[in-house]
Amino acid sequence: RGAFPDSRAVVDSVCANENNNNQELLEVLLRARGDPNSKYNGKTAMTCAAQQCSLPLTWKLLHAGAYIDSSNQEGYTPLLVALYTGCEELSSFFINHRANIKASTPSGDNALQLACVHCMSNVARLLLDHNISVNHKDTQGFTALHTATKYDCADIVSDLLNNVFTDANDVDDKGKTPLFYAAALDLAGIMNLLIEKGADVNQRAQGELTPLMEAVVVGKLQADVGLVDSSGNTALWMAASHGEKEVANLLLTSGSAPYLDQKGKDGATPLAAAAWAARPEAMQLLIDWKADVGATNKAGYTPLTLATLYTGHLEPEGVASNPTAVNLLTDQIRRVGQVTELLVNGKADPNPQNDEGFTPVNSLLRFKKNSWAVPGEAAVFAAAVQQDVQWLLQHGGSATQGNKYSVTPLHLAAYNGYPQAAALLIQMRANVNAQNAWKKTPLQLTGAGAGQLEIAAMLRRHGAH
């Protein structure tokens, strides 16, 4: 008589009776002044009630004075236990009765992240209404948006993205945003939600993977890599045209090899698309996979023709007066040189002709760099062009072949002022007195621009008139 029930009795009345929820025994113990905050064997009566999703037991304990945030030995509060167990009604009860929503598990998950594990959208919305932190991270760097994405909780993802504090591009400890997990799990709906809210589709994780590459690596998309867009382009074609070597490699090792030479826009193969854009790294990969270096597009152009074609695609806007634009063009021409070497070393014909009859050597010498009002940058550009031409001439490029108007490489070198190229052409027995369709010789095309006077003197020394 007069003795109070010990802690074990109170805790066991709840924890050891998980199947029958012995409420009457608990009532007796609490009336006998048993401590509702008793702890035994690492457990509390409140956390056990939460684990059983028992609102009646929880009510009785709280009415008797139990702390709503009393934690067990592992550090879980009743709210966290209810969330971990998936008890939606009880979780909402705890939140509405001011349980600590900032508490977290030993692995760093807060209440919102646990709600995401079970896709409890109503509970998540309630937590958001109570201003829980949306950018809290667990020990792996996961935010609630990562967790909601991983567990395919589209409703929660939508609610999180509508919260002004949510960062769609926050990364975990592996450098991955939620979009990586959506892509890897083929969650198209969630991917669309994330992208609409600004998720970066080109974000790179620590392993240098993008979300698309992650999807290919994980292999869960089960996508048809042979599908084409409205222009007839496959995924491999698009990767090659943008120089995405890593993506192209993953596609080739994941089913795209049969589409290595499939033609897309304008009848170009992936290799031709990469050549047009001067993407040597992607081209090296495709050539290693035995892409056809001589495949022609609808116009009959080979990849080498496309790479060296004198068109606006090689000339940045404002190149005539903008030093930065000229420098960009110089970088482009250097890449064209790398592309040329890859193709010719891969047994491509070094002298294919375009519809005007221009060979790659001719095309490279067509740039009118003396018309640019940036002579210093133009000189650097000219050196890059002549280096490309020199390599081509030394590896099978024709020094004499003219176009359909009988314009030879020497005509172009003289007209545009490329003295090193002119010297090499003369050394390779180019005709210094060749006439084009307008009866003009190379000497007659020289002027007073950079390199032209030097070429004129050179031509005269070799008998030009």
Please give the number of β-strands: 2
Distance between the termini: 132 Å
Number of domains: 3
Number of helices: 25
Report mean pLDDT, rounded to a whole number. 89
Explained architecture:
Keywords: ANK repeat, Repeat. InterPro entries: Ankyrin_rpt, Ankyrin_rpt-contain_sf. ANK repeats lie at residues 107-139, 174-206, 231-263, 266-298, 405-437. Strand 1 and strand 2 form a beta hairpin. With 465 residues, the chain is mostly helical. The chain has three domains: 1-103, Alpha Horseshoe (Serine Threonine Protein Phosphatase 5, Tetratricopeptide repeat), CATH 1.25.40; 224-298, Ankyrin repeat-containing domain (Serine Threonine Protein Phosphatase 5, Tetratricopeptide repeat, Alpha Horseshoe), CATH 1.25.40; 299-464, Ankyrin repeat-containing domain (Serine Threonine Protein Phosphatase 5, Tetratricopeptide repeat). It contains 25 helices and two strands.
